[in-house]
Amino acid sequence: MEDLKYDTVMVRYGELAIKSEQVRNKYEKILIKNIEAMLDLHKIEYQEIVRERGRIYVISEDKRAPAVISNVFGVVSTSPVITTGPTLEESCKVAAAIGKEVIKDGESFAINARRAGAHDFTSQDAGRKCGDAVWEAIKDRHPRVDLKNPDHEIFVEIREERSYIFTGVIRGTGGMPLGSQGKMVALVSGGIDSPVAAWMMMRRGCEIIPVYFNNEQYVDEAYTQKAIDTIRKLKEWSPGHDFKVYEVPHGECLRTFRERGNIRYTCVFCKRMMYKVAIEIAKKEGAHGIITGSSLGQVASQTSENLLIEHHGIDFPIYHPLIGLDKNEIVDMAQRIGTLDISVRPAMGCQAVPKHPAIHGRIEEIMKMESEQVDFDKMIGDALSRARITIM
Ligand code: ATP
Ligand code: MG
């Protein structure tokens, strides 16, 4: 059987449709730029990208294009389509060819026909005629028409200038075009959770500034490498938008605290320190918030009491998109994002974590340590001045 030539990718996007004309225009432009950058990243050739009636059409014959475009944030779904002329005859011919290719012996099908513009036939006519054409083409396979639950649905969209015929629909990532919302500082460690959290906010349209705190003497090289590789993987979801990556030395600060403070509060202190440094970075970079991978109760530092202490006196939004998710849900997402394989590589994680970390921490105690035993402001300043910045 001759190979059908799918020449265009139909791209559907969701939430943008409910915005005002002006906002929608702006978002659509961003979405198209992001689609272009994604296609370039994967070296996929295309002739043109057009906007038409709340859809985007990418003219490309590359078979990888529909799946690749479905990974652009903001895309609800894509379909490889065959375009033909706007007449009934042309549409029927293509629908029949698609039916011949996909419908197997005894399977059922349905035609989903739509029409827009001036034609001398209705969409019902189109549906009936195309259905007849498909049936005729494969009648020796004993096909059945099933409008409710067909094995194959063939879509026929007839417009003024051309028709689009297709059958497959690939689910997209959804969300909003990256760059349509404000920037965020994403705290990314070598673990499974934080890249997923960053990705979720990217999916909502945020550009991110990844920040990794290097616990130096308390972790090994492999751990740091995991964080860096994870960030690189996240970058693949963000073509066309640079990542400004901060690597902040954090080992000395942990050591000082362990020497002078109550060791059981190490993780709470560590987190507060990270927030404060991240906020300074956010202010410098014009970012609107901080993202972490905290999930309630997952580890000692993530009890509600400790989260309360961590946020005490912090007047900047800290987002925890995974707070209500279970670990297995987070792992599934990490798998899909492509960061899981990196995050589970063997490495020596933080050795500064105390044997018996405080689970029911007390605000007064940690505040007292911060004001009396360590020079918090100086530590923040030092960390910032020693941060290493890389553009990815
Ligand atoms: P993850 O699985 O994301 O590595 P975790 O389970 O090790 O996190 P915590 O150590 O309590 O849990 O960290 C909670 C959040 O704090 C992380 O999800 C991440 O956003 C941030 N974080 C922790 N360690 C670092 C680090 N070394 N650099 C940057 N951010 C960090
Ligand atoms: Mg975790």
UniProtKB/TrEMBL annotation:
GO cellular component terms, semicolon-separated: cytosol
InterPro entries reported in the protein's UniProt record: Rossmann-like_a/b/a_fold (IPR014729), ThiI_AANH (IPR020536), ThiI_fer (IPR054173), ThiI_N (IPR049961), THUMP_dom (IPR004114), THUMP_ThiI (IPR049962), tRNA_STrfase (IPR003720), tRNA_sulfurtransferase_ThiI (IPR050102)
MF GO annotations: ATP binding; CCA tRNA nucleotidyltransferase activity; tRNA binding; tRNA-uracil-4 sulfurtransferase activity
Catalysed transformations (reactions): [ThiI sulfur-carrier protein]-S-sulfanyl-L-cysteine + a uridine in tRNA + 2 reduced [2Fe-2S]-[ferredoxin] + ATP + H(+) = [ThiI sulfur-carrier protein]-L-cysteine + a 4-thiouridine in tRNA + 2 oxidized [2Fe-2S]-[ferredoxin] + AMP + diphosphate; [ThiS sulfur-carrier protein]-C-terminal Gly-Gly-AMP + S-sulfanyl-L-cysteinyl-[cysteine desulfurase] + AH2 = [ThiS sulfur-carrier protein]-C-terminal-Gly-aminoethanethioate + L-cysteinyl-[cysteine desulfurase] + A + AMP + 2 H(+)
Binding residues for ATP: L187, V188, Y212, F213, K271, G293, Q302
Keyword annotations of the record: ATP-binding, Cytoplasm, Nucleotide-binding, RNA-binding, Thiamine biosynthesis, Transferase, tRNA-binding
Domain THUMP: 63-169
Domain of life according to the entry: Archaea
Similarity-based family: Belongs to the ThiI family.
Function (record text): Catalyzes the ATP-dependent transfer of a sulfur to tRNA to produce 4-thiouridine in position 8 of tRNAs, which functions as a near-UV photosensor. Also catalyzes the transfer of sulfur to the sulfur carrier protein ThiS, forming ThiS-thiocarboxylate. This is a step in the synthesis of thiazole, in the thiamine biosynthesis pathway. The sulfur is donated as persulfide by IscS.
Name recorded for this polypeptide: Probable tRNA sulfurtransferase
Native organism taxonomy: Archaea, Methanobacteriati, Methanobacteriota, Stenosarchaea group, Methanomicrobia
Name of the gene encoding the protein in the UniProt record: thiI
